[in-house]
Amino acid sequence: MLSSWDNRRDFIIADDPIAFAAEHWVHTALRAVQQRGKFAVALSGGSTPKQIYERLAEKHRDDVPWDKVCLFWSDERAVPPDHAESNYKMAMEHGFGKLPVPASQIHRMKAEGNLDRAAADYEQLIRRELGSHLFDLVMLGVGEDGHTASLFPNNPVLEEVTKLVAPTMLPETKPHRLTLTFPCINQSRLAVVYALGQNKTAIVPMALNAAIKSPFPASRVGTDERKSLWVLDKESSRLLNKTK
Ligand code: 6PG
């Protein structure tokens, strides 16, 4: 059962978080298709989404009208689609390549070449395909430093207020990346942060307890109008004190 963390975030501590996340994904998709005729989802990289994609392909093939599903990405590294670090490649190889989503509805975030151009092109695509309601679901993870999508601590892109997509980078590493911005994430209908396992035990309470503009970008996911959902497990929620 979902619990309310505060006015911007709900959370659930699931016994089987991957099964829960996949069922919740299916439920969100069915509701969107019923209400608006299609389901637009932004997929994330990371180890948890990978397991969710695998579960969708293995257990939910017959539960979703895949011809009504439109795939986008929350963030991407500046690499070609067949590169080992590509989030597109990961999502396709770990689930969506086995599901009958029409190729014309798979909108890879192209992050090669000029990144400002690529960000503007992806934003134009999102606005054209989705209009002002943006995504039905934005899938996100959280890093041990509090990053989400490719929104890293202390990066100027955290303060973006108009653009939906922007280039970003980790100063110490390459490749550069493209990411959805907070205006995009928080104007979408639902953002879900999947934070599982013991390497998330420290960051989960820090991100949930911190002020909205804390050093942890993940603290900014969710608004009073559009609450986000944090999917947690026993390990990641171990230090969470609901009484604060
Ligand atoms: C990526 C992600 C990134 C990820 C977090 C958590 O492309 O790597 O978008 O934000 O979600 O780093 O990753 P894990 O789920 O692997 O811990």
CATH class: Alpha Beta
Q: Which class best fits the helix and strand makeup?
A: alpha/beta
> What's the total helix number?
6
Q: Order of SSEs, N→C?
A: EEHEHEEHHEEEHEHE
Per the principal axes of the C-alpha atoms, what is the gross shape? globular
CATH topology: Rossmann fold
Helix content: 25-40%
User: What low-confidence regions span 5 or more consecutive residues with pLDDT below 50?
Assistant: none
Rg over C-alpha atoms, rounded to the nearest angstrom: 17 Å
Listed once per kind, the bound small molecules are: 6-phosphogluconic acid
Largest beta-sheet characterization: 7 strands, mixed
Beta strand % = 15-25%
CATH architecture: 3-Layer(aba) Sandwich
Quickly count the domains.
1
List how many beta strands DSSP finds. 10
- The order of strands across the largest sheet is 1-2-10-9-6-3-4
